[in-house]
Amino acid sequence: MDFISEIAIWGGRITFIDIIDFIGTFAFAISGIRLASAKQFDWFGAYVVGAATAIGGGTIRDIMLDVPLFWMHDPFYLICTGLALLWVIILRKHLIKMHNTFFFFDAVGLALFTVVGIQKTIDCGLPLWVGIIMGSMTGAAGGVIRDVLINEVPLIFRKEIYAMACIIGGLIFGLCKIINVDPMLTHLACGAGVFITRVVAVKYHICLPTLRPEDDEN
Amino acid sequence: MDFISEIAIWGGRITFIDIIDFIGTFAFAISGIRLASAKQFDWFGAYVVGAATAIGGGTIRDIMLDVPLFWMHDPFYLICTGLALLWVIILRKHLIKMHNTFFFFDAVGLALFTVVGIQKTIDCGLPLWVGIIMGSMTGAAGGVIRDVLINEVPLIFRKEIYAMACIIGGLIFGLCKIINVDPMLTHLACGAGVFITRVVAVKYHICLPTLRPEDDEN
Amino acid sequence: MDFISEIAIWGGRITFIDIIDFIGTFAFAISGIRLASAKQFDWFGAYVVGAATAIGGGTIRDIMLDVPLFWMHDPFYLICTGLALLWVIILRKHLIKMHNTFFFFDAVGLALFTVVGIQKTIDCGLPLWVGIIMGSMTGAAGGVIRDVLINEVPLIFRKEIYAMACIIGGLIFGLCKIINVDPMLTHLACGAGVFITRVVAVKYHICLPTLRPEDDEN
User: Fold this and answer.
1) With 60 as the cut, is the pLDDT of residue A43 above it?
2) pTM of the model
3) 3-class DSSP state of B125
4) Residue B30 vs residues A217, B160, C209: alpha-carbon distances, Å
5) Which of A41, A71, A153 to mutate: most C Cβ within 10 Å?
């Protein structure tokens, strides 16, 4: 990965990416666990929904790309989900106050996961448009699996711009490739595009148009 | 594919199969988009449900067969889904009148997808009974994914004969193989079997028996 | 498989494992078909839900491990599901009386599927903790797919200990590996751990703690 800017802590073994990866995985897992708790799931059910939210998108990506699943070679992601479960159990009453922090973390994770998904797809020799789809899937499919598991209509199909932020980031990625930008700058621009689109969409309540039912008169 | 009868238009690059493939993909996508619109999905959500309906069955097939996903090497299917979305947005009020046309297109797509699924499975060296399952999955699993995404009980598990039409087509395919029929005729007979079964089942409201609940007295 | 104790019937071709495999597959399929019948599914829908319950977990495992799907090379599992459907159709009114038998069969199947899932994962060269996840998935994911298909919140996320029994069995498996127990004994200890945990949990209504909703005052 070109996007790795090593920060020399712990003997250089933890990179800036690792930190963002932790933040994103944690935030995604928290979102799954909180929705599971609203449905009175037990700890195991909450853990599974949290894990599915955090690693589901990347799992579908890796299955579709026919590469080894990323979480099978590093227990980090499942440990991170376990920490998220502990967090929710212990700090339950204070979660609502952390809303903005979680939103920020979630947007950071969305940005990283999109970049990773696009780059991994391109590294498999597939065209950029497949990369944009896979990047969006890495970022957004976990939330769809989460909503299927708790038996709700997937949120991202009806609410503020979410997966569209990934697609906008993907288009920026493609633009950078065309004008031959440095890989690391490409990754940063793509991630920033996802993050800013997401934050702006939520702040100004920007939604995509809704399809009206066929019997609607207007 | 033996089933390709090239029609010499556009320099021979568009085949009869391509046209049927477009019709089927378009009809499947329309069915997903219409059901999404009944649930007030936004354009993105509707597109995703449309795409899942159109390419979901073939995607599951290719994952199960461990071959590259068919839509990753040809943007045709996702463009076709985009056209279906445009169609629904623009012609929303007139869709209900096109009901019979869509039903016809859907049955044509079901027939083609079944044939393609069976042939692709056999080409992977798997036995015919796996081919029949994979053919039915290619035709019918997209609709199941659609219904899971819009949070409804899958229609094909309760309504008129749908996946059973694929299975009947598959049995015809097997019969043709046994009596050593020419591959192209085999494909045509299989597709016709699917199409006719589906049309007859809907016209005469032929359903499979329903399993009665266990506390039912009769 | 080390766990095979051949019983010399039918020329030695049917093993003890085959019998347990049949019992487990049958019980899993029955559970899917019964829940489908409560939703007025037709015979086809009930068969699909039964098959998804019986072979869904192993299918996800094999896709994640990137190995050929186990049921594609042996029609046994789909025939077994067909027999389960026949059983439910014919003996509908008597099923409720067989409740304890089905529970027993289901627990036996859970134990076997867990052992098979762990061993298959280790045979792929993956670490034991991945094996425990894959073993639990082999045993429990079919039930999750079943509940998604009938549009219910997955039972195993809220009720008695089910997948946790697989994890406990998996930990026993790991312990045996560490202290270098004979493979066959390892398999037996793991399976017994799953079975006993499951039976004890149901008998004494042992549940995991539930996550309380965030607005809960206590």
Assistant:
1) yes
2) 0.91
3) coil
4) 20, 19, 45
5) A41
